[in-house]
Every structure is written in structure tokens, then in C-alpha cells.
Structures
1.
Amino acid sequence: MANEMIFYDRNAEALTLSSMLNDNDVIPEAMLLLKEEYFYNTKYREIFRAIYNRFQDNKPIDIATTIIDLPHLKSDIWEIGEMVVSGSNINHYIPEVVRLYEQREARTSLISALSMLESGKDKDMVMVKQILDGVCKPSVKNKMPTPCSESMGKALAQIEEALMSKSRVRGIPTGYDHLDNLIGGLMPGKLILLAARPGLGKSALATCISRNIVKETDKDVLLFSLEMLDEEIATRFISQQSGINLSDLIHGRLKNDQSRFALMCNAAQDEIYERIIIDDNPVQTMQTVRNRTLMETKKNPAIGLIIIDYLQLLSAHTTTSKRNEQVSEMSRAAKSLANETKMPVLALCQLNRDIELREDKRPKLSDLRDSGSLEQDADTVIFLHNENPQDGNMVTVDIAKNRSGTTGKLKLYFKKETTTFCNIHDNQTMAKI
């Protein structure tokens, strides 16, 4: 505990709070740069939370109102409230509070890494490297508004990186060539919606993309499943990789078939599935999704894609608003999560039933169920539908919105027996990816 105290500056935390209590003009900037957990002192955390709650509710903030909210901390609030008379120097205090918080977090991670290192296990050594990479990675901070001229250098650097890259796409490749050519892969910080009516393969395509990514890249996948249990998803993976019909696996139709039994066992034991993390808690809000994501990415910095299956099954943070308002809140939170983590968020969505009633059954952005905010918040919207029922297992993938590239359509072959999507070249179904 004595060593941990090195990473705590009581004056920096107290002066930060004092500045906010005495100068409300500095509070908006402080709220952008600080979080409750940045304060080491538990009393100061409580005071910051009281200031934050009043700020969110647009209520007056000063020493007296904070004492009303926290009467048990009256003497502490008076003490820090008298430390400054204005907030003019808060920009000197906040960086110190943030820096010390990051040092404490790094210390915790390094202690965990040391414990794993001493175990000597190969798997733990991989985790040690990932933890060290995470400690060295710059933390994500809220940015202040800047002139566009300052952003030009970043834009040119990204363009140069794309020009120099040997990869054909800037984002994480999905494993489907034509799709990657249209959307540029799954781009960091982007919200991608994958939408369709039930039974057209949303979850199947998401799991195929997951498997392609862990197989072909160094990225891991975090999958939130609100519709299927983890063992159901795992059974799909076995079917996709082994080529054994899903129904045969579910109903145990492998008796006296040693070859297929061996294929099943080999698929189930593939090490790539250690890199797909499944959270199948059936009751989730976007807040719990965010919390679990931050927790998992802290443990495993290799996670590069977040999948939510599916968005409208999330529970609302509040039950007082209408359903379309609740989904709008979820949509904004999903986009914020992508921005915060600098990862693509692939969110599956249902389409309205109205599509079944009209003659032209090609999905439109307005068909996104329960909220118009979905189409506004999404960077990319991908629809799955059967454009021509005579095509059999051919599924049309329609890029209806794409901020990072062009829109367009392509076809994939959907082998329903194994829930596998395949690339198509020259009208021939290729071996599955």
C-alpha cells in the first residue's frame, strides 16, 4: 500500500474539486477530461460524483449545494472549497490527476503480468505480452475542439498509410472479398449495422466473420449474444468448420461415423476459438456492454472487434421513455462505444415487418426497426435479403449506407445446413473460408 501511495497527489485532486466548486465555468471542460475513478481519495470520488450529478441535471453547483448533497462530508467540502478562489489553474491540476490514475492502473496491470510471468505457462506468456502492450498503449482521452487545419496532418498521414499498406483494405478484413472492397473492411471507431428479417442469416454471417478474423488476423473478437447461449454459438462454429450439418450435431446423428466424429473433435479443439470471447448474459444494457467491453479489453488488448447480437434485444437503461427513444439511446451509445474503444462495433438489427407487405421487398434504411436514429448513427448499414427467391441459397448483401466508401450489392452463398457464408467467384461456390 505504501508504494501505491506514490501515485497519489492529494493536493492535485483537492485543487481540481475546489476549482469546480468555486468556478462553474471550468466544469464542462473538467467533465470531458475526468472520470470518477480517476480520484484515488474515496471522499473526493464521492464529491466529484455529486458535482457530476448536479451538472447532468443542470442544477447549481457550489460549496453549499454540495454539502446539502453530502452532509457527512461537510468538513472535507469546506476544506477543499477554501483552497482556491477561481478555476483559472485547473488545467494544471487535471493532467496530474489523470497521470497518477494511469500510473496506478499500469501498476495493477504490471503486478498481474508479473504473477502470470512467474507461472511460466505459454498461454500466460501471451497474456503478459498483451498486458505490456496495453500498458504502453496511449490512453484514450477526450479531445477539445481544434481548428480543421490541425486535423489535415492526421488526414494526410492516414492517406499515406493507406497508400503504403500492403493490405487491400484499411479496416479489419471480413474474409469476404467483394464486401471488403466495398466497405474497406471493418473500420476502427465505426458502427456497422447488419440488418435483416429473421432467418436470413444475420447471426450466421456475424459468426463467420468472427471466425475469419481470428483465423486470418491477429485480432480477437468480443461477441455479445442476447439471443443464443454460448454453447449454441460454439455448436455453430463446429458446424461451420467441420462441414457437418448443424442439425446432425444438435440431434447427435454421428453414431458409427468415426470420420465425422473426428472432424467434429478437431474443429472443437481448434485454438482459434480461444480468441473469440462470448458474453451470453441475456439481460444487457448498453451500459453493461460498455463496462464489460472495457473490462475485457483491459485484460485482452488484442480484442479488435465488438459484435452485438442483436441491438433491439438490449434492455433499456430507463423504462420511462418510448421504445423508439430507448433504441435511439442504444444506437448513440453503440456509436460512442466504437469511438471510445477505437474499434469497429458490428451491431445486428431486425427489420420492420412492413417489408413483407410491400411488393418491392428490398430493404430500405427506413425499415430499421424501432428507431430512425439507427440509420443516422451508423457509419455503415448492410442489409441481407433474398433478392430473387429462385437463386436458392444466394443471399444478396446490400450496402445501403457507407460513410467510408461506396454503396452497392454483392451475393454470398449461404449454406444453411452448416450456417456458413461463402464467397462466390465466377458464379461458382468456393470452398468455405
2.
Amino acid sequence: MKALRTALAAISLLALCGCQTMKPTEVGVRFRRLPPFALGGISSHVVSPGETTLVMPWDSIYRFDVSVKDISWGAHSVDSGGKVASDFVYTRALDGNEVALGVTIRYRVLPEADKLAKLISEGAVDDAAVRALIVAIGRADIRTSMNELETSKFLNDKSRYEAIDRARDSMRSRLQRYGIEIVGVALDGYRFERVLPDGTIDSSYQDKLTEIQKLREDTGREKSRIATIKAKKLQELNNAVAVVNRQVAEAQGFKKQATLRGDGYYQAKVNEALSIAAQGKAEVEGLLEQVNALAGPGGEALLRLELSKQLMSAGPRYFVVGEHSGNGAIDVKRTDYNDLIAQLGLIEANQVKASPNLSSAVKTGTDKVSGVDGDKKP
């Protein structure tokens, strides 16, 4: 009977049990509504994606989507009454101007048992609660970080992105202990506007900034166009300068070649002149030596010797030679060639060099030269 009651109790218990299967991107955490001594409370086991688990009557499964999700702000909508509802994150610049921020937060829940237990203990038992937690922390950190910028800093891209990065880092440090990873925070846009009490949007300041920004963009495009024209003209100038430099280099080359040719010609003429001068100087010195020799004691003998050499080379039978007169000059007379040779004592010295006609005249005693009688006087 006791066994029957036990079996009926087990059947009844199984009838109250159920099974749950996790989706491909879901994890589950079991919560047992039992006293701690009966292993009640949050389980340390995480139900994996796609896993099917048995759920007892006293169990609850808290399900969390672990895929990457986004939270975005920055859209206007009009309600049924014609009022504009703004979904921006509103803050103020450091100098007091209100600014509406369009921001996107990308996050995901980490499937870590201890951190999920911490998240559940703080009251976030589903994805909606997780989203509400991220929205609250995100708005606060974004407002705090962007409030550090003055209006002029909002116009500077670097300052804006540095401020939004500080907000991202602050969110990561605050949500990491709950197993929530902030993948990224992006500033989609900003507008200097405010919501009036009647629900309308005052964007007059933003309109002025937009106009100023448009003027800046137009100025930037004009500066870019001017810079392009300057670059083009500079390129043309560089090309012209290159042509001129090439022509100057060619002219310098021609000049250098002409200079080298002129220098070579000049040096050749200088060398020629020096050679002629040296030759002339040598001839003058030779003549001076001859003059000095002729002016000396043996000058008369040298003169007679030279005359005899010249007459012998001409080969005549008769020639004219003079004797000393009273005033030191040489008298010219027609004298027999053989007598002259005898007087100079050069017969033996000049026999070898004498011409055939001279040898024949010495032997035969003939006194004719070119058919002229040797005894005739001039």
C-alpha cells in the first residue's frame, strides 16, 4: 500500500513537471523556489543554447538572449495630437546650450554563470530588464561625458568622439560585473535643439549652426579649388623652369666646349710662338757667335774657308776673290782657281770633295769655265 502511494505521488509530480528548450541564441539559469538547505536559489549551472531541460514545479528558468543587440536613440515622431515626440538623449553643453544626441549602443549578455547570477540577483531576470538597465546606465554616462564639451567642441570631430569613447569605457566598467559586454557606442549625430513646453521643437540655434556649417563647407570647397589651381600652376611653372634650366645647361655646355676649343687653339699658338721665338733666338745666338768669330783674329781665315766651300760647291773654274787693300776691305779680282787653292793650302783637304771638272782642271791645266778664257780680264 505504501509503495502504491509512493508511485501515485511520483506520477503526480511528473505530471506537474515540464520541459523547456533553449533557442539557438538563448541561455537559461534555473531558479529553485526552495529553502537554501534544500538547494534552493539560483543554480550555478547555465542551460546552453538549444539544450532541453526538465523543469520541476518549484523551478523557474530565466532566459537571456546572448546575441549582439542594439539600442538606438535619435528619431523624431509625431503623435496623434500633432506633437513631435523626440527620441534623443538630451544634455547640455558646458556653456549651457541644449543638445540632442543620436546614439547607438551595441551590447550582448555573456553566458557566464557567476555573472548571470549577479545579474538576476539585481533584478534583471529577462531581456527587457537587461535592456532597461543598459538604457538607464547608458543615458547617464552619455549625458555626463558629453556635458564636458563646450558648444565649440561639439563642432570638432576629435573632441566629440573622445567624449563618446569615455562614455563607452564608463559603461563597460559598470556593466561588466553583470556579464553585459558593451561592444561599442557610436554617436550618430547631434542637434542643438530643445523641446518646448507645448511639445514643439526649438531648433533656431541649430539652424544658425547649420548655416554656418554650410558656409564652412563652401569655404572649404573653394579653398580646395584654389589649392588645386595653385598646384596646377605650380606644376606648369616647374615645367617651364625645367625647360629653361635645360636650355641654360645646353648653352653652358656649348660655351664650355667653345671655351675649351679656344683655350686649346690659343695654347697651340702660344706653343708655336714660343717654338718660333726659341728657334729665332737660337739662330740669332748662332749668328752672333759667327759674327764674333769673324770679328776675331781668325775671322779672315774663316771667311776664306767659307768662300772656298761655297765656290767649290758651285764647281766653277774661275772666281773672283780680293786681297787686302789699304782700308781693310777685300778687293775682288779674277784669279785662277788652282792658284787660290794653292794659296789657302787646301788642295789636299779638298781633293776628295772636288768635283770631276775641278780634278780634270788640276791635271790638264785647263783655264776655261763655261767657255771663258782664263787670261782675259774682266
3.
Amino acid sequence: MKELSRRQLLKITAAGLVNGLAAACTLRFGPTPTVAPSPSETTIPTATSAPAPTAEPATRIINSPSPQAVAGTNPPDTPTPVAATSAAPDTPTAQPSPAAAETATPLPEALYPPDLQKEMAAAFDRFYPDFRDRYVLKDPVVPNALRVVKIDEDKSIVSEGQGYWELAAVIKGDMATFSGLLAHDLYPQYLNAAGLSKWQILADGSVPDPNSATDADLDQWFARHLAAQKNPQYQAESLRLAQAITAADISRPSGRLRPSNGWDGQYDAAYSSPGYYPLLKDETGNSIWDLVAATDRDFIDAIQAAFPNGKGLVPNWVQQSNPSQPGRADGLLFGWDAVRFPWRQAMAALWYPDNIAGQHAKKQLEKINAFFESQGAANIKAVYDLTGKPQNSYTAAAFVGAAACASIVSTNADYRTQIAETFLGNPSNTYFSDSLTLMYTALLGGLLPH
């Protein structure tokens, strides 16, 4: 039998990887929830009274935006009532979605070759339905709503996952799934007083922390911003959330992006989203987003200067008062938080190649890509210290995909192909890596419209 090429293998559907997995994973919310078919998008969920101002190990550190180091800064949990309407009929039915690759917007050829872009877009279409059936489940509390469950970790729901999957659903054109996720996020119990999603809902349905996580706030907003371009009925919700983020997630007068609406003092570079800031300025009409962008660039530069022997890899969490000091126990690692930095920087580099946002992002990617390229596509590991020493012997799609995002600045065509194929050929089958795989392939496939 003739041996298949690497590229041929990459095009084989990933559906067989997940057969039976969802049935093996149960959630303890009383009756075991079932995998949700796509509801129909019949009613647009609204927030009428909200303020409008990994193969990872099971012990992956969960992204908690409220560490004990800042205990006592959380506001009381007094969410503003929000009207969340039913997102779908009582008996939702699956709706076919078009191939997202058919709507791809060509990326600048100088930054990412057309053949790799097509391969990434096709991979997004290939992975989406299998990942959706695995992680997007019916909500046991909110009628006809959907939630993203970390089935391989602690069975909780986190706002970051809701944000990733809102984006993925809009990109796919699966507006029924988007509407179901939005109905969950606008449920009054899951919103805080600032009108933002509480960052975690435990497996038993309890909400231990009223605060948001700013990265999730931003991704949820961008998903709704894109949804409004498909259906103008989402415009009011997009604007509401943009105004809530502007009011609650920015420190004043500095203009520094806060890690959460409810606490401050630490910085995660992976929350930096320079691709979003000009869009938020346009939507809100508030020029503070120019200050956010400038402050963000300055602090990233300060982090890089604090580690002169580093490889351009950014730390998970540092102290805002001293970027050389860790904000958490694993703060000075390029780990499961920081791994998203190349993806967010690549957005800006691709969308704004001729202005300061894109040029600064490109510089960050050049440093990171130089490191990963020196390692070789087949040798990317999960978690590094800032000098480039691997902390684990295993790999994970979250990290290989991050290297693929950084490779948009590479001048080595062979390496770009190798890292893309290594990334697509090694799915991790975990909530976090699979969710990021959709985000990475969407960006590199030209599916994240600017």
C-alpha cells in the first residue's frame, strides 16, 4: 500500500477521533445532560437592564482571575437583573452550517501563503462539528441555552470558553449555537453588577466569584460585534457589552487594561488584544481605547526589558508594579495563560500591518518565532521558562498552534509549512487546546473578518 503523504493525512477528517467520547463524559447536574443539537435562532437574547456605562495533564492550572493575593478587593455580588429570553424552541433541531472556508478573507500573501491559509480554513471546518459535539452541551438551568463544559478538567464552565465558542459559532455561521451560548451568558445569575460574565460556574451550578475575566469579556464582545454584522438585531448587545467593558475593565487615569472588573494589581500579557482596541474605539466612540493600546504596548516592552536573557516568551502573570516579579506561583513561565499571546498579537499584525499596533505586534512575534523556529516544528513542548527551557516532555496543540501563529513573520517557507502541518496533525483532544485550535485556524485561515 502506498504511504500517504503528511499533507494527505492532514486532510483526513477528524470525526473518528471523537466517536463515543461525549457519551463517556457525564456531568453531575441531576439528570445527565445530553449533547445539544443546534437550536434554531428564533429569538435574539437581550440584556435589557444591564448597565451600559491540556495532551495536557488534568492538573493544568485553571485561569482564575481572582487570586488570593488580592483577596478583599472583590465587590459584593449584586448583579443587575438582566432579561434573558429563550434562544430557541423547546425541541431544538440541528441546522446545517455552510463551510466557513467559503467566506474566507484572503490574508496578505506576504504574511501567510494562500495554500496554508486554505489548509487552515479547511481544518476549522473539519474540526468545528466534532469539537462542538464534545464540549457544547445543553444548559440544565437556562431553558434552551448552551454552555461550554470543560469535560476533561473539572466540568466547570468558564467565560473564556463561552467567548471562544461564541466566536467559533459566528465564524462558522452557526447562529443557532451562538444564540444558545448568548442566552446562557445573559442569564441574570451569570452576570455581575458591571454587566459582565462571571468568570466561572462550578459543576454543581454554584458561582464562587462575581468577577469577570477581561480576556473573556473582550472575546465575547468581538463575537457579538461580528454577529451584529450578520444580523443587525445583535447590534444593541454588542454596544452594551462594549460600553460595559469600557466602564469596568480599564484602570483610570492610567488607561491600563485590568485583568478583571473586580480586582487589579497583576498583568497577563495574553489578555493584551491590540487587534480589538481600534474596533472598540469605533463602536463606543471613546478615545480611551487609544490610551489602552499605548499603555499596553509600553507594559509589554517593560516585561521584555525585565528579562534581558529571555527569548521573547511572555510570562503568565507579573506584578503591575514590578514586571520582573511573578503575580502567581507559575507567573514567570510561558504557560497555559501566556500561550495565547501569539494568537492575539497575530491578529493585530495581520489586520494593521501598516500602523503602530501591527508593527509592535510584529516585533513581538519576531522574537517568539525566532525561538520556536530554532527548536524545530517537531520539538515544540508544553510550557517553557522565559529562557526557553521546556518544563515538560510532552507537546500540546495549544503551544504548537501558538508557534504557528508566530510563524506569520517567518521568512522560512519550509518551516511555516512544517509548523502548520505539525499543528494540524496533532490534536490534543482537550477543552483548552481544542478551543484554541479553532481560534488559531480561524485566524490563519482568514476566517476572522476585520
